[in-house]
Specification:
Elements (H helix, E strand, L loop, with lengths): L1 H18 L6 E7 L5 E15 L5 H6 L3 E8 L4 H16 L5 E15 L3 E15 L2 E4 L4 E4 L12 E2 L2 E2 L3 H8 L1 H7 L3 H6 L7 H5 L6 E5 L21 E6 L12 E8 L3 E8 L3 E7 L1 E7 L2 E7 L14 H30 L12 E5 L12 E5 L5 H4 L37 H5 L5 H5 L13 H10 L1
Parallel strand pairs: 1-14
Antiparallel strand pairs: 1-2, 2-5, 2-13, 3-4, 4-5, 6-7, 7-16, 8-9, 10-11, 11-14, 12-13, 15-16, 17-18
Helix pairs in contact: 4-5
Length: 463
């Protein structure tokens, strides 16, 4: 039953993960073709702002249950898009890159949804365009490709058809004036003035920390049977991927900014932007390098002979050796711990050696009836001091090996100094006279001096 529940939970988790698309702050997708003068690219930006009103107030009255959606798109003929292209190219140039954006389409969508305890505003801007001038130099052997343009960002206000698409607070000025008036001149204003079009982290993360793979499918003799695009037939494809949060790549977390606003009630404003990610590919085999502080790749049609690494800088080999080293250290630690534990644990016989014990019977027969009672005692007391700890309490006298007393015939009366012929005599020596009482009968004659009531009664009757 437990296994069935566990499998159900795991399956549900896989379904949720497989059907949910992660949202990233900035996401770059581009495939560069060094054989062409230009290549297409796509950059997406996403941010969500939460406005919480746990105590109600004017914002609750204005936003509870409110929903609206504003969206639009424009191409390079739009003055606002042209302004954005100029700002992005200026940012690329300031990063030291010679590449330029020659064409750009902009799609934007802003959605507000009011709920009982909070309102969320989703901001999304998608840039699809063409990048040019990324070829630095070329010869018959290889081409140098500029990758320093990938951090597409601007801090300027961008208006497209009267709609602000870069500064979240300015959007509220036209769509929700009550929000704008509540947040202006507060800490929330600083949070909502942070630009949406910002991919600086994609540029700041060195390409040597990205995962690198290459696909040699295009150089196969029958590559055309795979339905490959003509642009990659005859070439390998190199790919760099950024977005993993690990020791090597660095810890990547959501960028969260929060502020409290004191108005008619206390409101909480929280801006959430997920970590950035990027997928950058190039036709041909790309080797990383740096030129004048700008990251570049040297591209050749095919990889070097016998090149088999699957990640930048021989990453898998390092991981394999690292795992082997950790396993060796863990094994050594285990053996050291086991050795110490065994030394601390006593071995061999514990307590009294059975060969040093002797058993004897503690009851005699009477009238054909005999009990099966007995006990074990040490053959001698030489080792008693070393074995004394096995007893729960103090023993006043050292047990000695004894033999049962012989029963005196009823008609024979012993002298005053002679022990009574009593079946409980042996038990009497160790203080367990109640043996006769437990059996419900006395196994003694008239001379018995047992303290058991049944024995005393028997003595009186026989007297």
């Amino acid at each position: 039953m437990t296994k069935a529940i566990l499998l159900t939970v795991l399956l549900a988790g896989l379904i949720v993960i497989g059907t949910s698309a992660p949202a990233f702050g900035a996401q770059l997708d581009v495939t560069l073709n060094p054989n062409n003068a230009e290549s297409p690219f796509k950059m997406s930006y996403l941010k969500t702002v939460f406005i919480e009103y746990p105590n109600g107030g004017d914002l609750f009255d204005a936003l509870g249950g409110t929903e609206w959606n504003v969206s639009g798109m424009a191409d390079a003929t739009n003055p606002g898009v042209q302004q954005l292209m100029n700002k992005l190219n200026a940012d690329i140039q300031s990063d030291g890159s010679q590449a330029r954006i020659s064409d750009l389409d902009v799609t934007y969508e802003f959605q507000l949804k009011g709920r009982n305890i909070q309102t969320s505003i989703d901001y999304r801007v998608i840039l699809e365009g063409t990048i040019t001038n990324y070829i630095i130099t070329e010869d018959s052997q290889k081409k140098l490709v500029d990758l320093g343009w990938r951090g597409l960002s601007t801090t300027s206000s961008i208006q497209i058809d009267g709609m602000e698409i870069n500064i979240p607070l300015d959007i509220l000025k036209t769509e929700e004036p009550i929000l704008y008036n509540t947040f202006v001149n507060t800490e929330a204003e600083d949070i909502l003035n942070k630009e949406l079009i910002n991919a600086s982290f994609i540029l700041e993360q060195p390409l040597t920390n990205w995962h690198f793979l290459f696909d040699p499918t295009g150089i196969n003799a029958d590559a055309n049977t795979f339905g490959l695009d003509e642009s990659i037939q005859g070439f390998v494809v190199s790919s760099w991927t950024m977005g993993e949060s690990s020791i090597r790549e660095g810890r990547q977390v959501e960028r969260v900014f929060e502020a409290e606003v004191m108005a008619d009630e206390t409101y909480i404003v929280r801006s959430v932007q997920s970590s950035d990610t990027a997928n950058l590919s190039s036709i041909g085999f790309g080797a990383l390098d740096v030129l004048d502080g700008v990251e570049i790749i040297g591209v050749t049609p095919t990889p070097p002979e016998d090149y088999m690494t699957t990640s930048t800088g021989g990453f898998p080999i390092m991981i394999i050796y690292g795992m082997a080293g950790m396993a060796a250290i863990a094994g050594i630690g285990f053996f050291i711990f086991s050795s110490r534990a065994m030394k601390k644990t006593a071995t061999g016989q514990q307590g009294i050696d059975p060969s040093n014990l002797v058993g004897y019977q503690t009851s005699e027969s009477s009238g054909g009836y005999q009990t099966n009672r007995g006990e074990a005692q040490l053959k001698n007391d030489t080792d008693y001091a070393t074995t004394r700890s096995v007893y729960d309490g103090e023993v006043e006298t050292t047990p000695q090996e004894t033999t049962p007393q012989e029963t005196v015939p009823e008609q024979t009366m012993p002298s005053s100094g002679e022990e009574a012929a009593c079946g409980c005599a042996a038990s009497a020596e160790i203080g367990s006279e109640c043996d006769c009482e437990m059996q419900g009968s006395c196994l003694c004659d008239a001379t018995c001096r047992c303290n058991a009531d049944i024995c005393k009664e028997q003595v009186r009757e026989m007297s």
